[in-house]
Amino acid sequence: xxxxxxxxxxxxxxxxxxxxxxxxxxxxxxxxxxxxxxxxxxxxxxxxxxxxxxxxxxxxxxxxxxxxxxxxxxxxxxxxxxxxxxxxxxxxxxxxxxxxxxxxxxxxxxxxxxxxxxxxxxxxxxxxxxxxxxxxxxxxxxxxxxxxxxxxxxxxxxxxxxxxxxxxxxxxxxxxxxxxxxxxxxxxxxxxxxxxxxxxxxxxxxxxxxxxxxxxxxxxxxxxxxxxxxxxxxxxxxxxxxxxxxxxxxxxxxxxxxxxxxxxxxxxxxxxxxxxxxxxxxxxxxxxxxxxxxx
Length: 295
Ligand SMILES: *[C@@H]1O[C@H](CO)[C@@H](O)[C@H](O)[C@H]1NC(C)=O
Ligand SMILES: *[C@@H]1O[C@H](CO)[C@@H](O)[C@H](O)[C@H]1NC(C)=O
Ligand SMILES: *[C@@H]1O[C@H](CO)[C@@H](O)[C@H](O)[C@H]1NC(C)=O
Ligand SMILES: *[C@@H]1O[C@H](CO)[C@@H](O)[C@H](O)[C@H]1NC(C)=O
Ligand SMILES: *[C@@H]1O[C@H](CO)[C@@H](O)[C@H](O)[C@H]1NC(C)=O
Ligand SMILES: *[C@@H]1O[C@H](CO)[C@@H](O)[C@H](O)[C@H]1NC(C)=O
Prior knowledge:
Blueprint: H1 2-15, E1 17-18, E2 27-29, E3 32-35, E4 39-42, E5 45-49, E6 55-59, E7 68-69, H2 84-89, E8 90-94, E9 100-104, E10 108-112, E11 122-126, E12 132-136, E13 138-141, H3 152-155, H4 158-161, E14 173-175, E15 182-184, E16 188-191, E17 194-198, E18 204-208, E19 214-217, E20 226-229, E21 235-239, E22 242-246, E23 257-260, E24 266-269, E25 272-275
Bound molecules: 2-acetamido-2-deoxy-beta-D-glucopyranose (NAG) (6 copies).
């Protein structure tokens, strides 16, 4: 019996994918796992899965003063988990119902975000203000084929996605109704070798910068333009106030994100399902409650 459980644990850990802690990965997709010792990083903010099974959010390297933690530490009594088996066995996973859980030894639930929704695709983001947010389900995705092998979403190894535009601070996420909700001509979203931006004459395209191949495009044409993610989740290309393209997917008002994925596809998730901060607590300008006027 013990062998079976151990085997199951090993199988599960090798099946679910592992996020590379490369310094600029701040998105966790559902099915993905943050193992003990790994973290999501956005600038000076880090969400770390610790060896003691506590999931902890740090700002500006103040490791003595976490701004948030799951309080799921299991070894208060016996030091900082100096047991190899033990620190290997705790992890955080974003489930298909949008719930974030911290588990130990596969079966044991130590903490849950508790907010559950319908089965679908969700993302967890560590935003520039240092807040954790879970968005979903996925509302729309560009219709190009995924560039990575089938099934990678649940089995990706660190090597597959540990390359968000080397050493740069390129963005790959738009946030609705914020200063991060717009992509203007001349700016780009980049993840790994994929790039989303406007070509000349305002044709919005995703291309592979290594092969030079265009993977997806809106076929739009205008003199000036920008891409905007609205607070109803709709993605539009506009020329001044005139729409020249839309993904035609509108949802309830809320906070949405559009993410250029590691598979070369662009997708919209939302609204916000769970966050470590309450709406009213959010003081950062970036994450203020949605603003009607697009500044
Ligand atoms: C986050 O991961 C990076 C890369 O693996 C590591 O250097 C850093 O120490 C980690 N930070 C924390 C708080 O665990
Ligand atoms: C943090 O995330 C935001 C939003 O995705 C992005 O614009 C910013 O570049 C990131 N910062 C760093 C230093 O990675
Ligand atoms: C963890 O414990 C601290 C101190 O008791 C508390 O303020 C905080 O809300 C707890 N975190 C969670 C996620 O419940
Ligand atoms: C487990 O924890 C010990 C002591 O904290 C550390 O030396 C070791 O590298 C950790 N092992 C893993 C797999 O994280
Ligand atoms: C890739 O897209 C960018 C715009 O995002 C464009 O400037 C560049 O010319 C494109 N490259 C190729 C080879 O199509
Ligand atoms: C752009 O045109 C190509 C070729 O006609 C088409 O396959 C593609 O679906 C169009 N893109 C969009 C977003 O409609």
